[in-house]
Amino acid sequence: MHTVEWFGPQQGAGRDFPGGQRVTSGRARRSVLSHRGESPRSAASAPRTVPSPQSRGSGASAVEVRRSTRRRRTVSAYREGDRTVVLIPARMSEAEEQRWVSVMLDKLAAQESKRMLGDAELAARAELLSGQYLGGRARPATVRWVTNQNTRWGSCTPAEGSIRLSHRLQGMPEYVVDYVLLHELAHLLVPGHGRRFWQLLEAYPRTERARGYLEGVVAAGRLPHLTGPGDDQP
């Protein structure tokens, strides 16, 4: 995942792009967006929830601001249920807090808007794979990318018909993404990982190749925390 960062006046050397922006390979567990804040102010305070500005088009109805003494310049934000969590340095002033909350809400909304097309394409791909290999029997209600899924390549909730794929799969070969997607589609029909479940995947010709690819990624240490789709090894 790429993380977009902004730096203060004394930072931003090296691989920075115009405007103080730099693209790096981020591994923050739950951070969706990350920026460098400015010089902070007083001590840490308990998390507090504030109303989300009415102008934001997100589904989150409130913003929870969490101050941390460990943070010096970094500001991060992510969705958590029906709210948005913004993490800021403990000594940041209230004026800076308000400004960065506004900035992060805008950035999250923009990112989610862009991701909608990707989710739509993913849903279309799921429908195609279900028709090709599962007789069209697996019909998910929703299929989407998620950024807070760091211990699984994919997951599903059969009762809701929802499928979620880790954003870390983005950029991997298409047959690998198809395998993980098909794996989760099969779970809509068979919840466990018994013989019947694996028989459903036998029709996909690149199952073993995809499993080997994912195992290689983990072995190489590029994604050390990920195992496989659902609760099993890929």
TrEMBL record:
Residues 146-214 form the YgjP-like metallopeptidase domain. Residues 1-74 are annotated as: Disordered. PANTHER family: UNCHARACTERIZED PROTEIN YGJP (PTHR30399), UTP PYROPHOSPHATASE (PTHR30399:SF1). This is YgjP-like metallopeptidase domain-containing protein. It comes from Streptomyces antimycoticus.
